[in-house]
Design goal:
The structure is a homodimer of 379-residue chains.
Chain A (H helix, E strand, L loop, with lengths): L5 E7 L2 E8 L2 E5 L1 E4 L11 H7 L4 E4 H6 L3 H6 L3 H4 L6 E4 L2 H6 L4 E3 L4 E4 L6 E4 L1 H11 L3 E3 L11 H27 L8 E6 L5 H13 L4 E4 L8 H12 L8 E3 L5 H10 L3 E4 L1 H7 L2 E2 L6 E2 L26 H9 L3 H27 L3 H14 L3
Parallel strand pairs in A: 4-14, 5-6, 6-10, 10-11, 11-12, 12-13, 13-14
Antiparallel strand pairs in A: 1-2, 2-3, 7-8, 8-9, 15-16
Helix pairs in contact in A: 1-13, 6-7, 7-8, 8-9, 9-10, 10-14, 11-13, 12-13, 13-14
Chain lengths: 379, 379
């Protein structure tokens, strides 16, 4: 079993300032991981990500398994060599993707049979196979294969999800420990468990206790931001996080909007990921300190302001809304690049400011000030 | 009339090493202008272009007139402020585009009536209007509205094109001189003439003498690389260039492949533009010192070499063919960005090497050596 990878440096109420050490580098937390599903953050280069200050990105086992294929990645020296991102990478297990292919996947206790969304070919994922795939990919942090139930899920389905998630987590951990102790892989690829349970507190308690008992290198809360209300999400998060040990990283999967991140940090979450900054950027929306901006709108066509007047990123220092709106209007790739860069920087800058505020024991005040300016833009 | 903008610094046989001075900066020649039709080089940022060493880019009056519209560009301070490219820009007149819209354009001696390829709306371009549009856009170098005939063109059509090109050049020049002398615009936006005449040497002679007599700030050769053979192109270029004055820039429009550029430099051409490096990059082809590389091909899927082993651009220093091929295969924007960056750098680097070779009076030798390595890749 690997040594503890997390150091809690200081706390400001429940908000945590820590760091995670991996063989590809140190991650300052709370951290936001830009999503690089297919081994690239869409529209950005590694240089862009470094400039924005990202210290870890998130790949997806399902996608990388189908293309380019795990053998190719492994033969080229692993993911960090393949995509030239020399800092840490976390891979999601692909469970979420496989389950979202409802019509072309079939689940059993053994695993999931699914068809590729590329060519319809058949594939079978088991918890053991997903651990092996991620070890071969060479991710610094790997997620167990879990069962994420849709929202809303009746209690029977949610209970089934928790049972299977625990069963699979046990199998994943046993297989991982076995592979490491037999020296087939180095123990520098850390495995995280995932807590499920939908919006049922008793199930969340049960799942958290089960997952924590397996002593993973970190613990994630899955199955949130899948359709429930913001209040429900906060309620379940606040409940679940009590059961997660303080000495390990706590990762809230697939979240979220800036206001969600601030809320979750206030409860002690350390890691986040979300497609929002880059996906929205490609469809004409960016995040700014004054709230979301629909930069594609015609009222920006003569606006020489930067996307965010309070941002010091290289896009905001040089380009106007009018120009980026024009590029969007012309379907120019460059527009997607500039908008994606800004929003990625905005998220990384938010995390930098969060970390600094925690260090200076003024996180609550920072959260209030940020939201007061941010929500003006929402009105 | 503006002062002379061109300085011929030295010659190596007929190859010329010079510079063009504009109010937005100096251009070292021979120069290659990346094509920024809609005010951006596709998939690249201004920072990328600066890193590659581009000193001038090429916009298109037809496209910018339709979108975002000349009023928007002008009200935002002109093209250089609008697109944040602070070095020189040349705008093509849009003649080539308007004539290529055969089915939705109608030509008369007065001008061309055409429909927008965006929305079918009707527009009318005259030589005078095109000068005004380009002055409003604020391009450093503006091209007259000419008539480029298709290939092959019978002699009657080619003669008609030469006549109209001369007529329109006279009207353009008169209107330009009038606008400048009435102080409606500053005389820092230079107007270039264009020689036509298809593949008929007598018509090329006539057109060159007519255009040169109008004393533009520079002279371009248009109507080549429109379907004629490489031999015909070289033959017509070699013939036409004799009539162009040595004290002004000579621009070969829309060309071309690396071997074409080398050939044309050997006859004394100073300026080039072409969509090839960026367009090919987006469709899975890049230029390398060892010839064109179809990087999208499956045989690159496990190749950890850079796109060009002899290139020191930031893409070749970091990313492998296998990775960029994977990105292409996944339709990832990042793949287009990386490939476009490399090929743009490759062209700028070729021009740097050409300029250095001329300075060191070894251009012919450089051309031979370059082609010997480049053509190995073609075999």
């Amino acid at each position: 079993m690997p040594d503890n990878i997390y150091t809690l440096k200081l706390q400001d109420q429940k908000a945590r300032r820590g760091e995670i050490i991996t063989s590809n580098g140190i991650i300052q937390t709370p951290a936001f991981m830009p999503v690089a599903t297919t081994a690239t953050v869409k529209a950005l280069t590694c240089e862009d990500l470094e400039e924005c200050g990202a210290e870890i990105i998130l790949g997806n086992t399902y996608h990388l398994y189908l293309r380019p294929g795990v053998d190719i990645i492994r033969s080229l020296g692993g993911l960090a060599k393949f995509n030239a991102w020399h800092k840490p990478t976390l891979t999601d297990s692909g469970g979420y993707q496989v389950f979202s292919l409802k019509d072309i996947s079939k689940i059993s206790d053994e695993g999931v049979n699914f068809q590729s969304h590329y060519d319809g070919s058949y594939h079978f994922f088991t918890p053991e196979k997903v651990v092996e795939l991620q070890l071969a990919i060479g991710a610094d942090i790997m997620m167990v294969f879990d069962q994420c139930v849709p929202y809303p899920a009746d209690k029977k389905l949610a209970t089934e999800g928790v049972r299977r998630t625990y069963d699979w987590a046990q199998r994943s951990k046993a297989h991982y420990d076995n592979l490491i102790s037999s020296h087939k892989f180095k123990n520098t690829n850390y495995l995280f468990g995932i807590v499920q349970g939908s919006v049922y507190k008793d199930l969340r308690t049960q799942s958290a206790e089960q997952i924590v008992s397996l002593d993973f290198s970190g613990n994630a809360i899955g199955g949130l931001s899948v359709g429930e209300s913001k209040n429900e999400m906060e309620d379940i998060l606040a409940h679940t996080i009590q059961f997660l040990p303080e000495g390990k990283p706590r990762y809230l999967m697939g979240i979220g909007y800036p206001e969600d991140i601030l809320m979750a940090v206030s409860y002690g979450i350390d890691m986040f990921d979300c497609v929002l900054p880059t996906r929205n950027a490609r469809t004409g929306n960016v995040f700014t300190s004054e709230g979301p901006l629909v930069y594609r709108n015609a009222d920006n066509s003569m606006d020489d302001q930067p996307l965010d007047p309070n941002c010091d990123c290289k896009v905001c220092r040089r380009y106007s809304r009018a120009y980026i709106r024009h590029l969007y209007n012309q379907s120019e790739i460059t527009g997607m690049v500039l908008a994606s860069y800004h929003s990625t920087y905005f998220y990384q800058n938010l995390m930098r400011n969060i970390r600094k505020a925690i260090e200076e024991k003024r996180f609550e005040q920072f959260q209030k000030e940020f939201l007061s300016q941010y929500r003006k833009g929402l009105e």
